[in-house]
Specification:
2 copies of one chain form a homodimer.
Chain A: E1 3-6, E2 10-16, E3 19-26, H1 28-36, E4 42-48, H2 54-61, E5 66-72, E6 78-83, E7 92-97, E8 117-120, H3 125-134, E9 140-144, H4 147-152, H5 154-161, E10 166-170, H6 171-178, H7 183-192, E11 197-201, E12 207-211, E13 214-218, H8 232-247, H9 252-269, H10 276-279, H11 283-295
Parallel strand pairs in A: 1-4, 1-8, 2-6, 4-5, 8-9, 9-10, 10-11
Antiparallel strand pairs in A: 2-3, 6-7, 11-12, 12-13
Helix pairs in contact in A: 1-8, 3-5, 6-7, 8-9, 9-11
Chain lengths: 299, 299
């Protein structure tokens, strides 16, 4: 079953304790799409500038990702400059050059309209809502957001939350959104705002899914080196949602298994800069890591 | 199989976001012994003052805990005053009155000498080593420590680590002890210092056991309110080690199951002040929580 993802396609300049990279392919929709592409058909809606070359598009299309919905316009692509040198768990933004992304108006190709699974990556909630309304027949709607939208665009964000089946956020965002410091109560507070379920990511400690009065925890793979955490959350979301879309049945077991695949894809993403690791990942590696996660967590 | 635990038996004055308590029964050996008592025979070595009344001893003896090795001396018991009002994850010490604990010299009753399982709770590593040497025939030796001993008594602590089968510490202590910031590398660094295995506790995110080149992660129960985290780590250790001692066989499966029982006992300890929750816990509740942990973590 096809996923439509709307979000940023960008270039990132990154510095981490492991090194530096200038203008590597990035953006939430890119990381999500690459991770999800191992499981199901993915269609991307985004915007790029003249610096987005055929070689960049090929990173996506070589994985079977449909890029018909990536609009090419005059100007430069979104460019984010960030550092994790002080703290690997928290990105320090050094520069945000929105460029062509500043005027982004998502345009959904006709060939995308039958997508049953919709993922609203981290963009202005006004745009998330617009896409959601245009995709009114989607069978499942999931999304992401970040502290900026929670703090400064809360009213708009609440309209999106009301439309979501699943919201994926991290611990800090769940606490900020709910105004509650306790992890469980924060998740309940977020669900009270609209989404049927929330997946709260805990970085190196894994993630917890809350919904229907139940919790489910997936461990993270212990990593000896986090080369670059950029896109790990988007890759988690791609693995999680990609697996769900590949199953067709929305059972609790599907969602629980999806948590493990999310964790697998998040761990892979951290092992090299940008999308480098997902570009060389094989389906066999994913299965190996899935089994390993069971080994390190199941009695 | 009997466990001998040596450590503090104390009174705690506590303030948390949920309220205050003055001079409630506490101490690492107390929390550990109560938690372990649900699984196996426990013998305590410690020291108390004249303020430790029969009613306090009865909290232990009513659970079948052997208190022969709790020495009663003139003066006051160890008294710790702490606050979690600013941060539930980090105790702020307001006062440490060592009192009779300042001169503590562990004396092991003859009736304890056949204990096969030794637990060295968080005390001066010089005393931990002394007890370990007196219990040379112990089948398994586990222990705890804290930032104070890591920072100021490293040489003494290293001699203890060399004697341990299992060290239980938290994330911050593992990083401090190894000098490494990455969780997996920190655990490997700790194991290189002596212990065959290390259990690293992650608070609300559970715990990870490392050893023999393997990792195993146990989830924490999501708690809607942490009333008082004092003794949660000691209670985890008590559940973990108590289960191991109850089994007799030191298989990987025993250790993995023990991680889940540790998590269960840690979660219980947080639900009321001091030892209040473990005093009213039933074995049935423990089994229910054990099954619940499997439900929220197993595919």
């Amino acid at each position: 079953m096809a996923i439509l993802v709307v979000g940023s396609v960008a270039f990132d300049s990154l510095e981490t304790p492991s090194g530096k990279r200038e203008r590597v392919l990035g953006g939430a929709a890119t990381h999500f799409a690459l991770a999800a592409s191992f499981f199901t058909k993915v269609r991307v809606v985004g915007v790029v500038g003249e610096d987005f070359l055929p070689e960049h598009e090929a990173v996506l299309t070589s994985k079977g990702i449909d890029t018909t919905g990536i609009e090419h316009v005059a100007g430069k692509s979104f460019h984010w400059t960030g550092s994790y040198v002080k703290d690997l768990n928290s990105a320090e933004t050094l520069a945000t050059d929105l460029n062509v992304f500043a005027e982004f108006q998502p345009k959904i190709p006709a060939s995308y309209l039958d997508s049953e699974y919709l993922f609203l990556a981290n963009i202005d909630p006004v745009l998330q809502l617009k896409v959601r309304q245009e995709m009114a027949n989607a069978k499942l709607v999931a999304g992401d957001t970040m502290n900026y939208w929670i703090a400064a665009h809360r009213e708009n964000l609440l309209k999106v939350l009301d439309e979501l089946d699943v919201l994926l956020i991290n611990d800090g965002e769940a606490k900020m959104l709910s105004g509650v410091d306790n992890g469980l109560r924060a998740a309940e507070g977020v669900i009270a705002l609209g989404p049927k379920a929330v997946v709260v990511k805990h970085g190196e400690y894994g993630a917890t899914m809350y919904g229907g009065g139940q919790a489910f925890r997936a461990p993270a793979r212990p990593l000896g080196e986090v080369v670059d955490p950029t896109g790990a959350g988007d890759s988690f979301a791609g693995g999680f949602y990609g697996y769900i879309a590949s199953q067709g049945t929305l059972t609790p077991e599907t969602f629980r298994t999806a948590m493990f695949y999310g964790s697998v894809m998040g761990s892979l993403a951290c092992e090299r800069f940008g999308t480098e690791r997902l570009q060389v990942t094989t389906r066999e590696e994913i299965e190996e890591r899935f089994q390993h996660l069971k080994t390190i967590s199941h009695l």
